[in-house]
Amino acid sequence: MAKPDFTSSGDVSADVVVVGSGVVGGLVANELAAAGHSVVILEAGLRLKRAEYVENWRNMSFHNRLHSDFQGLYPQSPMAQAPLYFPPNDYVGLSGPNGSAFKQGYLRTVGGTTWHWAASCWRHLPSDFEMKSRYGVGRDWAISYDDLEPFYCRAEEEMGVSGPHDKALQSPQERSRPYPRDMIPFGYGDRRVAEIVNPHGFHLVPIPQGRSMEPFGERPACCGNNNCQPICPIGAMYNGIQHIEKAEANGAVTIAEAVVYRIDTDENNRVTAVHWYDAHRQSHKATGKTFVLACNGIETPRLLLLAANARNPNGIANSSDQVGRNMMDHSGVHASFLANEPLWFGRGPAQSSCIVGPRDGDFRRDYSANKMILNNISRVAPATEQALKLGLVGKELDDEIRRRAACGVDLSISLEPLPDPENRLTLSKTRTDPLGLACPDIHYDVGDYVRKGLNAVTTQVKEIAGLMGGTELRITTDYNANNHIMGGTIMGRDPKDSVVDGDCRAHDHANLWLPGGGAMPSASVVNTTLSMAALGLKAADSIKAAFARGQA
Amino acid sequence: MKKVSPPPLSSGTPLLGRRSLLLGTVMGSVSVAIGNSVLGRANALAAPPLDETFLGVSRAITGRPDLDPVLSSRLCAAMQTTFPGYASTVESLARITAQGGQPHEILDRSGDLKKAFLALNAAWYTGSTEDKTNAPMVAYYDALMYQPTKDGLPVPTYCFGRPGWWTEAPPPLGIPIHAPLPATPPPPAPPGVESKIPPQSPPLKPITPSSPPYIPKPRQEH
């Protein structure tokens, strides 16, 4: 088992230096450690235990929980801020027509943001890889669906994904291997809504999920605690920490509270070292043969820009000037209404089924596709807020809470922005973090493609509500963020207009890989994590191949 | 829990002042048990402590005689932190609840205190003193809001015991789908101070499906 070498001053050298300890960093680190390479993982944030997060959540004020304060329960390292919204800490400066739609909730902590995801493990559609050639909009990937498909399979197998074995319920249906586990069975609400809406073409299907009905490896079976977001209390949901622990079992070493801020390059523009500040503001150096930055869609481009050096004055990997551009997320809306029958959402895992009928079609030439998650998060808290506002007490209040909780429907709707170089992350000229490093600023406009897509969504939502005898139908009028951050280190074949190639290898630096959401040139409408994981595994294979050729 | 009734006083029991009682408690290495029993007797002679009044008011306005006294004490303390002068509010509320009646009857005759009653009731339901960012909270699992659905919905983070329980049929709703709404308009919601609720559209009119039904183009598999 290869181990990194530490000096007495706290510097380290390893075959592979991975910056970021989320799902992508963990998967890559585990692959390479298992292949016999020494691996060090540098993580800016703290390392805490699940039980602390669960307690923090249960001890949070009602208002915070009602309005999804999924960041506040994760204590932050004083040196490595991440966004907070209750109240806002303005770590990320937002501007532009839809700046408020980019209020991302990502974690800087060992294990990463999948601590508070809902474990939706979607694949992009084959068409999503060819938006430009099929629909004349956006950009094509440097790889096809077929190129990534084996890695989707591996990612599903690594993460223990349960998805429908029934082909008719798969989206997409093009698969070379079955899901490692069959779908998580529907609860009553999913079954009933499917019965009502599917005859009208909406195509409600099970969400492929990183949890299972039987134990998966060391992971227990899902017990339907209905708290996937912001923390699975029993560890039945896949979290990135699981691959960090696997990587460590294979010899990798994780250093928490290590904020990387500088990247050294040699005369061939190979990366030779990264430098980090520890919790006491002391600087240390990690030297290696190969470097992987997997810090999610905001921190990776921020670091590349922060680390500009004499040979790379616009930032590392940025000869194309595309680092930090093309920022995307599934800017979305929520629609809620009361059905005229009890559906009892809130039984089982927090996400269970999703309407994918409008995921693809020729209309994508003109406007955004969408998907609608039938949220299965308990409606008790919003029902309570609504019922209390009616001024009720006693039995009338209890009945109203019960009625609204049982009949309430919430659709979380995702739209697909196109990559736009003007949607850009830059370094703030006025705000710095506690280490004096520039905070990120992001300018964001969802674009007319999404705005037109929202018109279609509104019609579809009205139809769904109509089918279910809905009352009190409301659609949010501001786009919300979905924490699916993409585009900032965009993939392409041409080094002049893209940052990484089809293996997420930086065009500018032969031994630097930037796997994850930042590489994705099209958003699709589905949660990004499985695609990020697949890209991470593909990157790991190309790193292994480079080692084998003596090029890493 | 039943109301604490004053213990019988024997003629020889000395009446102690609060200061000497505190001293007795703090320094009571000799006889903690004796000190506590004396404290209980002395309190019983004075006006009922705020905690007790608060619990009585809370039981009346929620219509729940089984509220937990420990939780009640915590909520009483948190309400005092959140609302200056809350002790006198509790005393005022107690004058209304002293006349008895169902929760809605108490509310109907509460006049200017209606808001205070609703706020107290809301605090029991949400487990937090008010619906604002980071407002003090005292209860999660025991917040009353989970009671009306406890047969059908677990309190999030807890579960109903075994994988797959959610595939079973949920309980009958047991109440009319369209509950009668109050005739008087609801009071305005207390304004939030720090975080804004996402703006929403006004209520929208759903589209009733016509025949033949609208069928969006199915996605093409390639």
Describe the structure.
The complex is a heterodimer of chains A (552) and B (222). Chain A is α/β, with parallel strands linked by helices. Helices cover 25% and strands 17% of the residues of chain A. Chain A has twelve helices and 17 strands. In chain A, the strands form three sheets. In chain A, strands 1, 2, 3, 6, 7, 8, 9 and 17 form an eight-stranded mixed sheet that branches. In chain A, strands 5-11-12-13-10-16 form a six-stranded antiparallel sheet. In chain A, helix 1 runs parallel beside helix 7 and helix 1 runs parallel beside helix 12 (529-548). Chain B is an all-alpha fold and 222 residues long. Among the domains of chain B are: 14-46; 48-166, no CATH class. Helices cover 36% and strands 0% of the residues of chain B. Chain B contains seven helices and no strands. Chain B has helices at 18-26, 32-45, 50-62, 69-82, 86-97, 103-108, 114-126. In chain B, helix 1 (18-26) packs antiparallel against helix 2 (32-45), helix 3 (50-62) crosses helix 4 (69-82) and helix 3 (50-62) packs across helix 5 (86-97). Residues 1-40 and 179-183 of chain B have low confidence and may be disordered.
What tags apply to this protein structure?
heterodimer; A: 552 residues; alpha/beta; FAD/NAD(P)-binding domain; eight-stranded mixed beta sheet; 12 helices; 17 strands; 25% helix; 17% strand; globular; B: 222 residues; mainly alpha; disordered N terminus
> CATH topology of chain A, anyone?
FAD/NAD(P)-binding domain
SS-based class of chain B: mainly alpha
Give the overall shape of chain B, derived from the CA principal axes: globular
Q: Which pair has the most extensive contact?
A: A-B, 102 and 87 residues
**Which architecture of chain A would the CATH scheme give at its second level?**
3-Layer(bba) Sandwich
Flag low-confidence runs of chain A: none
Strand content of chain A: 15-25%
> What's the Cα radius of gyration of chain B?
25 Å
CATH class of chain A, anyone?
A: Alpha Beta
From the N-terminal CA to the C-terminal CA of chain B, the straight-line distance is 68 Å
**Strand fraction of chain B:** under 5%
Give the total of beta strands of chain B. 0
Mind describing the biggest β-sheet of chain A? Answer: 8 strands, mixed
Q: Structural class of the secondary structure composition of chain A?
A: alpha/beta
Order of helices and strands of chain A: EEHEHHEHHHEHEEEEHEEEHHEEEHEEH
Terminal CA distance of chain A reads: 19 Å
Oligomerization: heterodimer
